[in-house]
Amino acid sequence: MSICDKWEGECIVVTGETMAVQRGLGVAMEAGLRNFIMEVDNMVPYHGLRQKKHEVSSYGLILQDIYKLCLQRDNVSFSFIRRNGNQAAHSLANMSLNVNELLVWLEEALPVVMDIVRADLVT
């Protein structure tokens, strides 16, 4: 599953990356997925999610929401993927600058994204 969504406002990178995980988890739940792996390409939210950190901050509150959402699924795990090995996510993030609504691909992705995924597999 892939999503592309535009957000308004500003935040620090860690908060934005964590909000993206929260949004993706919510969409996966709405789609009825019960078991899945969330790929994260920023080490700070990845470690926060894996270690179930508790922080008093906006980042910490988003983590708490993610923990609660995960309890409603059978199995949710988090995987760290280096940015240079996940250009598809970077491409979707750039594409989100030009969309006005949530776009979701459950089983198939845009051809341009699939081309990038194939290139990632080679590297």
Task: Describe what you observe in this structure.
This protein is α+β, with helices and mostly antiparallel strands and 123 residues long. The chain has one domain: 2-Layer Sandwich (Nucleotidyltransferase, domain 5), CATH 3.30.420. Helix content is 50%, strand content 15%. It contains five helices and four strands, in the order βαβααβαβα. The chain has a two-stranded antiparallel sheet. Strands 2-3 form a two-stranded parallel sheet. Helix 1 runs parallel beside helix 3 and helix 4 packs antiparallel against helix 5. The longest helix has 18 residues. The chain is globular and about 40 Å long. The two termini are 22 Å apart. The mean pLDDT is 82.
Keywords:
123 residues, alpha+beta, Nucleotidyltransferase, domain 5, two-stranded antiparallel ribbon, 5 helices, globular
What's the domain count? Answer: 1
- CATH superfamily (homologous) name: Ribonuclease H-like superfamily/Ribonuclease H
What assembly state would you assign to the polypeptide chains in this entry? single chain
CATH class: Alpha Beta
- Cα end-to-end separation: 22 Å
The CATH topology label is Nucleotidyltransferase, domain 5
Provide mean pLDDT, rounded. Answer: 82
Assign the structural class, choosing from mainly alpha, mainly beta, alpha/beta, alpha+beta, or little secondary structure: alpha+beta
Q: pLDDT under 50 segments (min length 5)? A: none
How much helicity do the residues have?
40-55%
**What gross morphology would you assign?**
globular
CATH architecture: 2-Layer Sandwich
Please tally the β strands and state the result: 4
Order of helices and strands: EHEHHEHEH
